[in-house]
Automatic annotation (TrEMBL):
Annotated source species: Amanita muscaria (strain Koide BX008)
InterPro entries associated with the record: Aminotransferase_I/II_large, Kynurenine-oxoglutarate_AT, NHTrfase_class1_PyrdxlP-BS, PyrdxlP-dep_Trfase, PyrdxlP-dep_Trfase_major, PyrdxlP-dep_Trfase_small
Single GO molecular function: pyridoxal phosphate binding
Family in the record: Belongs to the class-I pyridoxal-phosphate-dependent aminotransferase family.
GO terms for cellular component: mitochondrion
Name of this protein: Aminotransferase class I/classII large domain-containing protein
UniProt cross-references to Gene3D superfamilies, sorted A to Z: Aspartate Aminotransferase, domain 1, Type I PLP-dependent aspartate aminotransferase-like (Major domain)
Signal peptide: none
Length: 432
């Protein structure tokens, strides 16, 4: 009889589970379980997890209710996705890609962006294939890669130099030489997340062109995680990697309806790619989920169809700009450094000057973790605002880079953010 370390402690097993669970850190208690509402004070304000405390616009909810009253809308959809949604995606994204997208061969609806990524890994990775991930990385990449036989290879983005008084997310930089040195004969794929979670970085054209040159030289598949593509703040331009010369044929781009329309629980995402990538991925997703939620696909279609009429994305960006200002204003009052995000709804706060007692009663789940875990727990308990330690988004070798930061989400209503700002004033007494 074997024993596995599960989220809630050791579990006796008659049959040993797959080693891929350990390789993907899936059996270790993750950051989301530790900084869960159940473990924190009841009145703690959750600025850690990236879900909204407000819902989709009423006209999209109305479309969902209408679909739920239908007949065909409540049954299986085609594994490619409902044609109305694919048509809406085509009409919305064709101008943004500078090409007429084919609804039958170049668009695939998935059960959330994560399942879409997972299906790509299933479709293309052989055992031992290496996948390059820029750090910090969205934590789902790691298990999704390893569960499909891949081996992650990490290339860290470099934090802003200490000499920069007011850093932005653009000051987190990529070293193309480090990227090239990470390439081996087993390298199969590169994952790029722009706008980037958790940094908020919007990769520049120059950076993307450098990656494109590497991808072409070594014949690599490139996955673009662009789920925050419609949250890019004034002064920055989001470059779609697939539009760079020669990149369409080797790029799959991942999107999220949940991120776009404040409906993260709907679990609707989609992929845009050439037929040579979509067709194998379709074969995978058909066996993983068969098809995605039918009535909510109809509602998602309505979202893209009517977004221009309601000026939805322009209004949403303006609202997030206000929310961002409230949160960084609180950090400015504290005199703490942060990386001003140029995209997404996340901001990294430098917590290296936040001090806490060495003998503070941390729970067992925090003991042995990097300093940012302790700082985040201390802030949650003593200040009443929860945040996410950034070392979770690194491999063990590079975890010290992330240990200087915690991630705050401003995907909350204005009132919640103002309350959080008031509470954060209490942190001043703990700053060195």
């Amino acid at each position: 009889m074997s024993t596995a370390t599960a989220v809630n402690g050791p579990v006796k097993q008659v049959i040993s589970c797959s080693s891929r669970l350990a390789e993907g850190r899936a059996l270790v208690q993750d950051v989301w379980s530790i900084f869960n509402a159940a473990n924190l004070p009841p009145d703690c304000l959750n600025l850690g997890q990236g879900y909204m405390n407000f819902g989709p616009p009423t006209w999209i909810i109305d479309a969902a209710e209408k679909a739920l009253r239908g007949v065909v809308e409540n049954h299986y959809s085609h594994p490619r996705g409902r044609i109305r949604l694919r048509e809406a995606i085509k009409n919305f994204y064709s101008p943004r890609f500078g090409r007429e997208l084919d609804v039958n061969t170049e668009i695939l609806v998935t059960s959330g962006a994560n399942e879409g990524q997972y299906s790509v890994f299933t479709a293309f990775l052989e055992q031992g294939d290496e996948v390059i991930m820029f750090e910090p990385f969205f934590d789902q990449y790691l298990p999704s890669v390893t569960f499909n036989g891949g081996k992650p290879v990490y290339v860290p983005l470099h934090p802003p130099p200490a000499t920069i008084a007011k850093p932005t997310s653009n000051d987190w930089t990529m070293d193309v030489n480090e990227l090239r040195q990470a390439i081996t004969p087993r390298t199969k794929m590169i994952i790029i997340n722009t706008p980037h979670n958790p940094i908020g970085k919007v990769f520049t054209r120059q950076e993307l062109e450098q990656i494109a040159a590497v991808a072409e030289e070594f014949n690599l598949l490139v996955m673009l995680d662009e789920v925050y593509d419609l949250l890019v703040y004034k002064g920055k331009e989001h470059i779609r990697f697939a539009t760079l010369p020669g990149m369409w044929d080797r790029t799959v781009t991942v999107y999220s309806v949940g991120k776009a329309f404040a409906a993260t629980g709907w679990r609707i995402g989609f992929l845009i790619a050439p037929a040579s990538i979509i067709q194998p991925t379709l074969a995978a997703t058909t066996r993983i989920v068969f098809c995605s939620n039918s009535p909510l696909q109809e509602a998602a279609a309505c979202g893209y169809e009517q977004a221009e009429k309601y000026q939805f994305f322009e209004t949403q960006l303006s609202e997030y700009t206000e929310r961002r200002a409230i949160l960084i204003g609180a950090f400015d009052k504290l005199g703490l450094k942060y990386s001003l995000p140029e995209g997404t709804y996340f901001v990294l706060l430098d917590i290296s000057r936040v001090k806490f007692p060495e003998d503070y009663p941390f729970p067992e789940s925090i003991i042995g973790r990097c300093r940012d875990f302790k700082a985040a727990w201390f802030i949650a308990i003593e200040v009443g605002v929860s945040t996410i330690p950034v070392s979770e988004f690194y491999c063990e070798e590079h975890a010290d880079i992330g240990a200087a930061y915690t991630r705050f989400s401003f995907a909350k209503d204005v009132e919640t953010l103002k309350r959080a700002a008031e509470r954060l004033e209490k942190l001043k007494q703990y700053i060195e």
